[in-house]
Amino acid sequence: MTTETSIFIGAASGKPVELVLRRANRHGLIAGATGTGKTVTIQGMIEGLSAAGVPCFVADVKGDLSGLAMAGLPTGKLHDSFAARAAEIGYAAWAYGDTPVQFWDLYGAQGHPIRTTVSEMGPLLLSRLLDLNEVQEGVLTIAFTLADREGLLILDLDDLQSMLLHCAQRADELTASYGNVSRQSVGAIQRALLQLRAQGGDYFFGEPALSMHDFITVDDRGRGIVNVLAADRLMASPKLYATFLLWLLSALFESLPEIGDPDKPVLAFFFDEAHLLFDDAPEALLDKIEQVVRLIRSKGIGVYFITQNPIDVPDPVAGQLGNRVQHALRAFTPRDQAAVKSAATTFRANPGVDVETAITELKVGEALVSMLQEDGSPAPVERALIKPPGSRVGPVTPVERGVLVQTDAIGSKYDTLIDRESAEELLAAKSAEAAAAAAEAAAVREAEKAGAARAKEDARLAKEAERQRLAEQRHADREARLERQAQRDAEREAANNPWNRAITSATRSATSAAGRAVAGEVSKAVFGKKSGIGASVLGGLVRGVLGGLFKGR
């Protein structure tokens, strides 16, 4: 039965079948057709791991596993079957009991929202999520590289779309540095982002981002917390579901330290509908999955893939799965028959078990089981009856879920979306600054053009004014010359007139006579009646003055 070193899975031929805790990080596979008891097997394993202090994560595709949070009831319709099974396998410790659960939901409706940033997911997983081809993935990688180089945070899809637009605007520059960045590829990625938004991708990308340490906790009784992801709605977007779980594994791998093989796992990770992870996965992604599965063991994490058909898991990954539970398969089709043969060859042989025949004969709640032993070797396959669970088989009610979400240790830590400054805001600010600078430069150019035009017009007007002034000056000078010429002509004409000459001569004669008479009278008045030199001089002077006066007339 369950001990400090192992958990009870079921019984085969009266002997207990147990999962050794020291080997539980060596991963596992739980396979089987629909309705063969896989959910009850998972439920029982999680109950045992939680009781041993191992936190767990499980994707609840159908909603049934939410019942882990509530204890089963003796009034349940499966009580009699469970009691009979417990007695049949000698499981005396079987009792109803709950398991500590934290509910999560990518959409935030049935649990605490789970978010991560676009940068944390990275271009490889995002390309898988967006179903991009190699060329488009290369352009997306360039966008991430440029964002890192320029210190731009890509937190949500708005940031990524802004970053892609920025790359398209700088396509010529980036092509020279990183390789071809075509607008067609950017447009294709943008359209893929629109499809992702339609699937609810907006809910997944943003902050506050999930802290992995909130997954790896125990309650006050030392029981491992079981993190149940509500995946019923998420399954409508298979690629989003598969990529999210792969991101979660990668994030756990990157955030946890190397510890080798601990006494018990740090976390047990149950990946339901595992085939979705591998369907149409490109080679690079398959390599990534194989690497994570191979190396995450040393971080103390055990990964358990759950699928209907064991051949859904590629051989490089299947080879890493040491603990196996195989429920019934239906060999109705050639693919089913191939799956039966494939499953039969993966178990360590047991002479008492015809694996290939038994796989098609297993009853509900019965399985072929091979677990790793203490020394790490696989135990021979056994046909075992699986133990009944102690928690409720079936989903919790919405009221029960609401109470559990409100009262768990997470509280409201992730409830409010944070939108801090990131690539979208910074690029918008740069674009606004560039637009303002361009507008200012244009205004300066226009002002310079207007100033130059005004200066040119002023120069033209000044030149025109000067030309007008010079023309007027020339006109005035010409008029003055004409006036002077006319005056000179008039004077010459007057001087040449016979009458004017006669008058002038008469005037001169009269002036001379008058002058002599006046001069004589003046001389007599001055010198008396006697004539002499003084009288002669004075008379000449008087005659000259009078003559000058008459000439001037």
Helix content: 40-55%
- Order of strands across the biggest sheet? 2-1-12-11-10-3-9-8-4-7-5-6
What does the largest sheet look like? 12 strands, mixed
Shape: rod-shaped
Mean pLDDT: 87
Structural class based on helices, strands and sheet pairing:
alpha/beta
Count of DSSP strands = 12
Low-confidence stretches: none
Percentage of β-strand residues: 5-15%
Question: What's the Cα radius of gyration?
Answer: 56 Å
Characterization of the model:
- There is one protein chain.
- With 553 residues, the chain is of the alpha/beta class.
- Helices cover 52% and strands 11% of the residues.
- The protein has 18 helices and twelve strands.
- It has a twelve-stranded mixed sheet, with helices on both faces.
- Helix 4 crosses helix 7 and helix 9 packs across helix 11.
- The longest helix has 74 residues.
- The chain is rod-shaped.
- The mean pLDDT is 87.
